[in-house]
Fold each of these.
Amino acid sequence: MRTAYGVETVRATERQLMARLPEGTLMQRAAAGLAVASADLLGRVYGSRVVLLVGSGDNGGDALYAGARLARRGAGVTALLLAPERAHAGGLAALRRAGGTTVHSPAGGRAAGATEGAADRPAGGSASDPAERPAGGPAGPTAAEVLIERADLVLDGIVGIGGKGGLRPDAARLAEAAERSRAAVIAVDLPSGVDADTGQVHGAAIRADLTVTFGTHKPGLLIDPARDFAGTVRLVDIGLDLPEEPALEALQHADVARLLPVPGPESDKYRRGVVGIAAGSARYPGAAVLAVAGALHGGAGAVRYVGPAGDAVLARFPETLVSDLGPAKAGRVQSWVVGPGAGDDAATVAQVLEADVPVLIDADGLRLADRDTVRARTALTLMTPHAGEAAALLGVARAEVEGARLSAVRELAARYRATVLLKGSTTLVAAEEGAVRVNATGTSWLATAGSGDVLSGLAGSLLAAGLPARDAGSVAAYLHGLAGRYAADGAPVGAQDVAKAIARAWRDVRD
Ligand SMILES: NC(=O)C1=CN([C@@H]2O[C@H](COP(=O)(O)OP(=O)(O)OC[C@H]3O[C@@H](n4cnc5c(N)ncnc54)[C@H](O)[C@@H]3O)[C@@H](O)[C@H]2O)[C@@H](O)CC1
Ligand SMILES: [K+]
């Protein structure tokens, strides 16, 4: 299991540990790990050009100490100090002792004002806003920008877990220069400008190829949009003694393998669970077929279908038990999936919600379900909205959900007293309490019509097999994401192909 802890927890555990260790030990551990990761990325340290972006906190300290280690191995290291008077004193001294140089960098000075290797001098004037640049003619690159442009590696130590809001203008300009440069960019602890706890990005942020994070992953490193800024994430152990329950957790192959329902010698189709699918309409029969396709691959012993698309379902999947009597009279099931392609059939949704078994509500079902009835249910409820549907359920704009996915999914779970799976490039699953699960196996090719119907069937099937809602949702998202990758293989993919590839995902996870 990959886990992530929020800033408050990191700070508390760091305090405990620091009280027992000589001063500066943790920063040295962090810097050592950062230097190793930098050397790995550079390949050859000797003769390489390394630029450190240094803010006013300990994040900058990490960068300076790592820069000192690289300088000792023969790299040419220049630190751009955003606030020289507040830069980490010990780190500055270490860098200078190792032969590194420092440059004052509110990015105002023109390139002519900077000489590479000029130690301890301002890189030009103090103008830090484009409006303050010398008038007349297009402004050339600043000294800092030229250094970044020529670098092989940029270490982003502008701000770490102490960051508040988006980057300030002078820091934002360095982030833009780093993005333009061909240099590899390593974010120290997390990309400056992203919110460690939520994954929100307010304005400019560093775009990293690699993030070297200390002690634990931070939630923001696993959730979009911030995840996209982090690149590959490498965790450096600094010895933190973290509490049992993380803020966020991400299943890995071994976790999924442990959770998958596997039939024993005594199993028959009823003991393995029957999943009921109440989906599709005369207008959208395909949604029923796809939900059934997902359900057949989810580990339940049988799939029961109710709705107007029975013929279409049977034509594709003759093993389905089809009924046209409606959910209440269809026969026993251990879980229901309701909503995909349901159109305006509110009566079916209402009948399903009355059942005393776990219910998965998706798509049209999310719109048609009576909210008080959902809240009052005693059996499990799993809701599977995409960002647009989540926005409608919360009464906010879609962009608000997309920008703050973690708080949106938590809020939905609390408001509807349900487990909620929020679909997207990083799918999140939140129950009313406990760690939120994040899934990152997906691919953007999965954003295809019908793909969500397959996911619903799959997750519903896992519910019927007896998995709790959080496990059913996160295991389904994991398998579905993998299946999407296999089916797409770098090219557009249809939902049916995703359903077919679930078996391969299942086998790979169990191997
Ligand atoms: N506390 C510890 O034991 C350890 C901390 N470490 C490092 O220390 C970092 C935390 O250090 P700090 O608490 O000093 O905080 P940071 O260095 O993350 O940031 C604080 C400074 O950044 C400035 N700042 C805040 N928001 C900004 C923004 N949007 N734009 C520009 N500047 C901004 C603040 O004015 C403040 O001076 C971690 O992320 C990690 O890199 C590591 O050395 C490991 C050990
Ligand atoms: K950083």
Amino acid sequence: MTVRVGVIGAGMIGQDHIRRLTDVVTGARVTAVTDLDAARAAEVAASVGATAYPTSADLIASPDVDAVLVTSWGPTHAEHVLGAIAAGKPVFCEKPLATTAEDCLRVVEAERAYGRRLVQVGFMRRFDAGYRQMKQVLASGSIGTPLIVHCAHRNPTVGDTYHSAMAAQDTAVHEIDVLRWLLDDEIVSAQVITPRATSKRFAHLKDPQIMYFETANGVRIDLEVFVNCQYGYDIQCETVGEDGLVRLPDPAAAHVRTAGQHSSAVLQDWKARFADAFDTEFREWIASVTAGAEPTGPSAWDGYAATVISDAAVRSLESDGTVVTADMKPRPTFYGGTA
Ligand SMILES: NC(=O)C1=CN([C@@H]2O[C@H](COP(=O)(O)OP(=O)(O)OC[C@H]3O[C@@H](n4cnc5c(N)ncnc54)[C@H](O)[C@@H]3O)[C@@H](O)[C@H]2O)C=CC1
Ligand SMILES: O=C1[C@@H](O)[C@H](O)[C@@H](O)[C@H](O)[C@H]1O
């Protein structure tokens, strides 16, 4: 069976995922594309032999679409995901699931009412080989009970549309998701403080930011978000346990020794850093759709949790570093909880 995918939003990551579904992943074909920019939709659709649709509702309803990929702007995600659920079609939604907790809950409630999982959220780090190795080490118990996690998320530069709240909502949201999964624990509070700001930023932006999170089991997480670090795209994560520690490996890069120096290259963007993770993410999603099974990746509940926790971080930033409790509903049994 070939899964026929309809794509809503043919911008930067939409085009990258269309390439991935066309050239990398077997068992999938992009048959439909829509975008607010009709000319862009037509051009991208033509490049892969797909049909351009005028609206997302038309695309979701199309008999040529078995599964939906949402790669439009964040505030529009909930509407498209709700449309796919109403049509009973599996839907992969790039992060965020929705930009408000209320909209995330609407998706959660719609999926529960449908009665089986249809939604996967695009937190690709869970598919990264290094994070998966860390998860195995933690599960093996070899470093003992986790106590502290030290993280850094650095981008070389960001444009002037990037504002201070995006450090949590757009950037740290990846750590929020992957740490909940790694530790199999819930984040219950957030605190954000700002050190001296770099001069290499747009004036409206607080950069860097230091975020602290606490989990239900008392694990403390510190995360440096520095989106104008200049030197490269650098993701660090180290979990300290009672009997040892486990550190995320850096991407493989040749070590060069010359002229009295040794060096190795640092990647420059997230696309390259997580290319393999994105490929694995889509292979596993297409495999689940092909099998008619529920997706195994991040759920609508995970999307809700990530939004609630990043909202708490933004509230802390806006209240000069107050510790803010994550205002999360109890997790329903439908999503593996007890409520
Ligand atoms: N997992 C990851 O690491 C990353 C995820 N993303 C997420 O992917 C999403 C898209 O980001 P980009 O591709 O960078 O944005 P973009 O601006 O390059 O592309 C978005 C496209 O969606 C279209 N669009 C917007 N609203 C629409 C609607 N209602 N119906 C149809 N088309 C619509 C726009 O015209 C545009 O072509 C965002 O939610 C972003 O957070 C982006 C980068 C990395
Ligand atoms: O999702 C992403 C971007 O939207 C975000 O702006 C970057 O900071 C992240 O590293 C990237 O993975």
